[in-house]
Specification:
This protein has 209 residues and is α/β, with parallel strands linked by helices. It has eight helices and seven strands.
Length: 209
């Protein structure tokens, strides 16, 4: 089973979580055949390049029960879908301005019975509630992303890190992060997962202080 890649790095999953991760392959194959959100080449590597990649955030921060996490620019549900399975007692909100992508997230959510995830079709600027963390994966340059996320975040500490942004990025980041005039922590995903895909991948984090 391809989901064994997840249990290799997260061995304490419940039977229900294992079932949910296992279900994602068929669900994404089905939905991707109707609404293309993942390249066909990447579908062969769904568990490494999308699911496990998303779960790097779980290696950096453990969210508390009852925390609210918003995925801005969620696309087909990454990182929110894998994270919602990992943290069943945390509220996840997947947001995207493109309606067809939200349809995919809703379909996967229903198919895998991910009850702590809701999907919203809107622009990030239109969100009218607060969250403890904002997560995302390579939506845009950080200087553009920051205003979208900042108005959503509330101060506090609803996990093992103070509330803030956890963002999946690749490549050279120093100049891009410096342009935000924020202090960032950079975590190399290659130290978490043993696959060449992650050699240039990072989780970057800044707190809402």
């Amino acid at each position: 089973m391809k989901s064994e890649l997840i249990t290799r790095y997260f061995p304490n999953l419940s039977d229900e979580q294992r079932r949910q991760y296992e279900a994602l392959e068929a669900l994404y194959n089905d939905w991707n055949s109707r609404i293309n959100v993942i390249s066909r080449k990447d579908m062969e590597h769904l568990y490494t390049r999308h699911i496990l990649h998303s779960l790097a955030i779980a290696k950096v921060c453990q969210f508390d029960k009852g925390a609210r996490v918003v995925d801005i620019g969620c696309g087909g549900g990454f990182p929110s879908v894998p994270l919602a399975i990992m943290f069943p007692d945390v509220e996840f909100v997947a947001v995207d301005s493109i309606a067809k992508k939200i349809r995919v997230v809703e379909g996967v959510k229903e198919g895998a019975a991910i009850n702590n995830l809701r999907a919203i079709n809107c622009r990030a600027e239109e969100l009218d509630f607060k969250a403890d963390y904002v997560v995302s994966r390579a939506v845009t340059e950080m200087s553009h992303f920051m205003p979208w996320a900042w108005h959503v975040l509330r101060r506090g500490e609803a996990g093992t890190l103070p509330n803030g942004i956890l963002y999946l990025k690749g490549g050279e980041l120093a100049e891009e992060l410096a342009a935000t005039r924020r202090k960032w922590n950079v975590y190399d995903i290659a130290t978490m997962f043993d696959d060449p895909f992650f050699e240039t991948k990072r989780v970057v984090y800044t707190s809402k202080d």
